[in-house]
């Protein structure tokens, strides 16, 4: 298992797209380090031959027939939009 | 005060409504007045709309006079945790991120309650995005415990529990991912129930941890909880994790099933950290069942000590992904300071999310990240399988498990600053979420401080009828439900 | 330069044509007013959940069977986590490690040495095909981008080839073959202009004879099958010249501009993507049993090149005709229907009329084949009239044009317009033939020593004498008889 004292908090915040203040980074590093340390207990469990539980009660083939239903009007779709133009969501220009 | 309309049970009120002794408008007015009287102290609601509630009540009365009453919930004011979507009402998750969000659609449970004729009353406070055990993580306000306003009501469904306890709603809906219904029910001295995973639709519930979340009722009595569960249980084609279970008449089953039952006491739930007064109250409850002829067995759930760890890996991993959609693009808080699209994500999420939410997103992102998936997430899911197997093995010998709901009664506001300490509150409730089992908390006494103590029963999968009956038997033999906070 | 070979893998995304979206039941479509094909699930509003589209599953199983894939007995759904404004949940639901289709192959046909010569056939192995959801559309302005979510959530198949293509031409042939199979299988219209088929290419080079893969460059924004070919060709050149000048090929994503023919590095995603794949807890796995596969198999059409082989064998058609029929299933079916009526012996004739004349008329009138007034019965009858000598070629062309406009059957038309070749006065015909033979001793001599084509020299004078009305078949028979007798 990883050395949890070395959480790369910058990389994690980058992946999660959350801006943290310097204090938050320091605090979270420490707190998460503690939590992860606790979680290392899981290493003690013998999980050989154990299937992971993707779902509590496994079901298969859950689907719906391909029938189109009424959706939202553009007005309702954009009702909570922070910024819009021409019936579209507006964001600062996306440059790849 | 026990005579007050706002403290009556659904059962009693629906009878009185049926006899025209009281109208839904009168009842709703009483609840509104009570809310206006105590809300400044309890702070259970993020928002409420009196006009809307009275309009619903009026409609209920009209239905009733034309002979079209819809059942026991018709005309009864029910509060909803502010993570359950109601069309044209705010849906904030008690977060800055969704402070101005208005839902354009109904959750399935909302539609169910509407079909049952309930009067939907208010948006109830919670720990932000349901992450917490005290409702102190709310970005809107801190809800207090009606029994002692210097104490927390529990969490994350603190508002839902406190509102019922204080008479600000006859019943309410909350959500439970690691104990977020049961623990506040215990802290606030009311009944709170989490159904088997998959029994109640999650469509329209703001997702925290998809494989653990369930919506469930708060009420004054077990029978009321059964009535509430009846209206929301059942398969939903909009929720692919929803189970096609056969739904019995829960309320009718209460009078059919009288026991005696086989009850198990998991030894791992009665060890270090358990408050002696809580222990004593639960032991007395166990004694009651024994006197009624129930077989009481000591059982072991050997993987109990791994529950917390498995939970925090799985729940935060799922949450980190579920909360990715909150980015200020299509809805929600968008930072005014963003200089470009990349910045928009970072700043909107940095500003919109509170500390605990950010912490859990960090943890969840970390455990899923490259190089760590096998060691954390995959392993935790395997341990989860073992945890569930522990329960199912115990159920080969007993009908249900009996435990304290929480290691202590409600603690003081601000008492638990360390996140890890708060996480430890969940040790008795988390197992049922991981294993997908139904659980109920009901009052079983008071601590010397005057704070309520909760008894938890954990049942077999999809055996809510049995679970409710076991709880109902204890409840009816005691008077705890008739105590109300002095507020 | 020739010490290196190119190694190309293609990722093709195909929109499946369904009524509703992949994970919710709002409608799909192209060209609708912005944000009118959304619902709470598409927009990833708080509290929403996905539900699989059964028809999309059927469609991908069909595609997998058509392309020779193994259909996984069990497959599941995963979340691919990354942030982008066109992706409402900021994760895409896809299939990571247990896709529904595994392996497979695509038969391609390379260009031949000439237009009427069939090129080499090759089989390109596939790695996998999986199902996922499409994203919205970004419209870039000068200071802002506008997002339309109509496309978001449309069912998408991702077809991944092995890195087994060796040239730009092969890539072109591969896309043509895939598109034909999918269109003919009624899965998608594969219109690249509407974004229904998109292609990214992974290109690397390595010394010939080695097996290790070189550093690969991903090429995006290849908006047409031609641009795919051109872009790949351009990239191969770029890599070769980089190697030749001692440079190193950097693993990167490049954007190809089809109009300028140049590519540029996309402002690099500084760190490699960490998609944090994990099984989607909101969706259940899918199990495909034999019964389901059999039901789908029964709906699979004949594959284009199988049809080509069958046409060669059964109808003895030349490549110039089959190469048109291969790519057009309705046309091929029309052809076979006509041959059923006209007889296999006339297959070539039928083929000619359909591939040349019918296609020309249909194209000029800008209508669909199904709307053509000329049906198989018309052509079958026409061909019979020609073979019997009732209708001569010039008149036949006139009849064809008329039929296309009016839908009248040819025999009736020939009668009403008096277009029948005149019944031959055999005595007159014989005299013209004798005269023609007598007038060309040289050709007669050549014919009689075995040069069969010499007979053509006699035909001109006969046609002239008959003012073009003589039945060619009869002329030929008569000449041969006379030449044999003399």
Query: What is the CATH class designation of the domain at 4-43 in chain A?
Result: Mainly Alpha
Strand count of chain B: 11
Structure annotation, total helices of chain B: 16
Multimeric organization: heterotrimer
Structural class estimated from helices and strands of chain B: alpha/beta
Q: Would you tell me the structural class of the helices and strands of chain A? A: alpha+beta
Strand order of the largest sheet of chain A: 2-3
Largest interface: A-B, 51 and 72 residues
Which residue ranges of chain A are poorly predicted, with pLDDT under 50 across at least 5 consecutive positions?
none
What portion of residues of chain A belong to β-strands? 5-15%
Shape annotation of chain A: flat
**CATH architecture label of the domain at 4-43 in chain A:** Orthogonal Bundle
Mean pLDDT of chain A: 91
Shape of chain B: globular
Sketch the major β-sheet of chain B: 11 strands, mixed
Q: How many strand units of chain A?
A: 3
Strand composition percent of chain B: 5-15%
Residue stretches of chain B low in confidence (pLDDT < 50, at least 5 long) are none
What gyration radius of chain A follows from the Cα positions, in whole Å?
22 Å
Give the helix level of chain B as a range of percent.
Answer: 25-40%
Q: Secondary-structure element sequence of chain A? A: HHEHEE
Question: What's a quick, concise take on this entry?
Answer:
With 96 residues, chain A is α+β, with helices and mostly antiparallel strands. Chain A contains 3 helices and 3 strands; from the N terminus they run H-H-E-H-E-E. Helix content of chain C is 39%, strand content 19%.
List keywords for this structure.
heterotrimer, A: alpha+beta, Histone, subunit A, two-stranded antiparallel ribbon, flat, C: 486 residues, alpha+beta, three-stranded antiparallel β-sheet, 15 helices, 18 strands
Question: Can you tell me about this structure?
Answer:
The complex is a heterotrimer of chains A (96), B (487) and C (486). Chain A is α+β, with helices and mostly antiparallel strands. Chain A has helices at 9-16, 22-39, 74-77; strands spanning 63-64, 84-85, 88-92. In chain B, 39% of the residues lie in helices and 13% in strands. Chain B has helices at 10-18, 24-42, 50-65, 108-115, 158-166, 182-188, 222-232, 250-256, 276-291, 307-322, 341-352, 355-368, 374-394, 419-423, 430-435, 464-476; strands spanning 45-47, 77-81, 119-124, 171-176, 191-194, 214-219, 262-266, 295-299, 400-404, 439-446, 452-459. The radius of gyration of chain B is 21 Å and the shape is globular. Chain B has 16 helices and eleven strands. In chain C, helix 14 crosses helix 15. The radius of gyration of chain C is 30 Å and the shape is elongated. The model of chain C has no long low-confidence stretch (mean pLDDT 93). Chains A and B meet through helix 1, helix 2 and strand 3 of A and helix 10, helix 11, helix 12, helix 13 and helix 14 of B. Strand 3 (88-92) of chain A pairs antiparallel with strand 11 (144-148) of chain C.
């Amino acid at each position: 298992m990883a050395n949890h004292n070395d959480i790369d908090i910058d990389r994690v915040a980058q992946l999660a797209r959350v801006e943290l203040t310097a204090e938050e980074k320091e605090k979270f590093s420490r707190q998460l380090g503690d939590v992860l340390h606790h979680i290392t207990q899981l290493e003690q469990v013998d999980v050989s031959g154990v299937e992971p539980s993707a779902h509590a009660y496994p079901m298969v083939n859950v689907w719906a027939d391909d029938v189109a239903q009424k959706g939202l009007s553009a007005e309702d779709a954009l009702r909570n939009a922070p910024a819009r133009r021409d019936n579209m969501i507006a964001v600062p220009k996306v440059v790849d | 005060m026990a005579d007050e309309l706002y403290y009556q049970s659904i059962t009693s009120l629906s009878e009185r409504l049926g006899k025209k002794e009281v109208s839904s408008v009168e009842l709703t007015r009483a609840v509104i007045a009570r809310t206006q009287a105590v809300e400044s102290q309890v702070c259970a609601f993020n928002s409420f709309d009196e006009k809307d509630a009275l309009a619903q009540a009026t409609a209920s009365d009209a239905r009733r006079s034309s002979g079209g009453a819809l059942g026991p919930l018709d005309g009864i004011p029910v509060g909803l945790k502010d993570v359950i979507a109601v069309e044209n009402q705010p849906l904030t998750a008690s977060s800055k991120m969704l402070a101005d969000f208005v839902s354009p659609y109904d959750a399935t449970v909302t539609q169910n309650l509407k079909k049952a004729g309930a009067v939907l009353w208010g948006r109830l406070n919670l720990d932000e995005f349901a992450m917490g055990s005290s409702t102190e993580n709310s970005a809107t306000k801190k809800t207090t415990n009606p029994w002692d306003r210097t104490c927390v009501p529990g969490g994350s469904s603190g508002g839902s529990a406190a509102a019922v306890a204080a008479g600000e709603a006859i019943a309410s809906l909350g959500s439970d991912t690691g104990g977020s219904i049961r623990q506040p029910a215990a802290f606030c001295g009311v009944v709170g129930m989490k159904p088997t995973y998959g029994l109640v639709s999650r469509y329209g519930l703001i997702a925290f941890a998809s494989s653990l979340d369930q919506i469930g009722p708060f009420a004054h009595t077990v029978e009321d909880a059964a009535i509430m569960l009846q209206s929301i249980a059942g398969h939903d084609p909009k929720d692919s994790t929803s189970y096609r279970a056969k739904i019995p008449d829960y309320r009718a089953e209460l009078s059919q099933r009288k026991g005696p039952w086989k009850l198990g006491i998991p030894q791992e739930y009665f060890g270090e950290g358990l408050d002696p007064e809580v222990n004593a109250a639960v032991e007395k409850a166990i004694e009651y069942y024994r006197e009624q002829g129930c077989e009481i067995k000591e059982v072991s759930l050997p993987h109990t000590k791994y529950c917390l760890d498995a939970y925090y890996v799985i729940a935060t991993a799922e949450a980190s992904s579920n909360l990715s959609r909150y980015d200020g693009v299509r809805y929600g808080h968008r930072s005014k300071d963003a200089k470009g699209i990349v910045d928009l994500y970072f700043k909107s999420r940095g500003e919109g999310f509170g500390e605990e939410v950010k912490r859990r997103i960090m943890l969840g992102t970390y455990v899923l990240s490259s190089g760590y998936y096998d060691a954390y997430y995959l392993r935790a899911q395997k341990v989860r399988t073992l945890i569930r197997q522990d329960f199912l093995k115990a159920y080969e010998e007993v009908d249900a498990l009996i435990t304290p709901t929480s290691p202590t009664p409600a603690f003081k506001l601000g008492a638990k600053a360390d996140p890890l300490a708060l996480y430890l509150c969940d040790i008795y409730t988390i197992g049922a979420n991981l294993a997908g089992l139904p659980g109920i908390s009901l009052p079983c006494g008071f601590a010397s401080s005057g704070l309520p103590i909760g008894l938890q029963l954990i049942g077999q999968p999809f055996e809510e009828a049995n679970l409710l009956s076991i709880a109902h038997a204890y409840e009816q033999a005691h008077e705890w439900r008739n105590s109300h906070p002095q507020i | 330069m020739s010490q290196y070979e190119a190694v190309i893998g293609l990722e093709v995304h195909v929109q499946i044509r369904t009524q509703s979206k992949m994970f919710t039941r709002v409608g799909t479509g192209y060209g609708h007013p912005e944000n009118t094909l959304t619902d709470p699930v598409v927009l990833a509003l708080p509290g929403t959940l996905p539900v699989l589209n059964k028809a999309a599953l059927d469609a991908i199983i069909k595609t997998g069977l058509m392309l020779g894939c193994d259909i996984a007995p069990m497959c599941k759904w995963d979340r691919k986590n990354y942030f982008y404004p066109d992706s409402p949940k900021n994760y895409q639901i896809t299939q990571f490690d247990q896709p529904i289709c595994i392996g497979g192959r695509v038969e391609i046909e390379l260009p031949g040495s000439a237009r009427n010569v069939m090129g080499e056939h090759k089989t390109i192995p596939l790695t996998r095909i999986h199902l996922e959801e499409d994203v919205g559309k970004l419209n870039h302005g000068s200071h802002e981008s506008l997002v339309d979510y109509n496309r978001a959530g449309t069912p998408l198949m991702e077809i991944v080839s092995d890195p087994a293509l060796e040239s730009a031409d092969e890539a072109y042939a591969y896309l043509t073959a895939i598109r034909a199979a999918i269109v003919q299988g009624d899965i998608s219209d594969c219109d690249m202009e509407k974004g229904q088929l998109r292609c990214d290419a992974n290109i690397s080079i390595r010394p010939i004879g080695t097996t290790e893969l070189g550093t690969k460059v991903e090429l995006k924004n290849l908006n047409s099958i031609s641009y795919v070919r051109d872009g790949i060709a351009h990239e191969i050149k770029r890599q070769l010249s980089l190697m030749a000048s001692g440079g190193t090929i950097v693993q990167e994503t490049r954007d190809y501009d089809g109009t300028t023919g140049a590519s540029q590095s996309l402002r690099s995603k500084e760190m490699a993507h960490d998609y944090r794949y994990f099984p989607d807890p909101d969706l259940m796995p899918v199990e495909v049993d034999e019964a389901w596969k059999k039901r789908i198999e029964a709906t699979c059409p004949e594959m284009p090149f199988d049809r080509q082989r069958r046409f060669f064998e059964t109808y003895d058609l030349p490549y110039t005709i089959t190469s048109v029929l291969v790519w057009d299933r309705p046309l091929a079916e029309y052809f076979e229907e006509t041959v059923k009526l006209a007889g296999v012996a006339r297959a070539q004739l039928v083929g000619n009329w359909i591939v040349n004349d019918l296609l020309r008329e249909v194209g000029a009138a800008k209508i669909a084949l199904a709307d053509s007034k000329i049906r198989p019965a018309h052509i079958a009858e026409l061909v019979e009239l020609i073979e019997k000598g009732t209708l001569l070629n010039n008149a036949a062309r006139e009849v064809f044009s008329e039929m296309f406009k009016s839908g009248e059957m040819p025999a009736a038309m020939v009668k009403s317009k008096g277009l029948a070749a005149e019944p031959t006065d055999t005595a007159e015909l014989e005299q013209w033939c004798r005269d023609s033979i007598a007038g060309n001793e040289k050709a007669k001599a050549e014919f009689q020593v075995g040069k069969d084509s010499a007979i053509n020299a006699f035909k001109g004078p006969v046609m002239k004498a008959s003012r073009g009305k003589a039945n060619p078949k009869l002329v030929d028979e008569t000449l041969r008889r006379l030449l044999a007798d003399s």
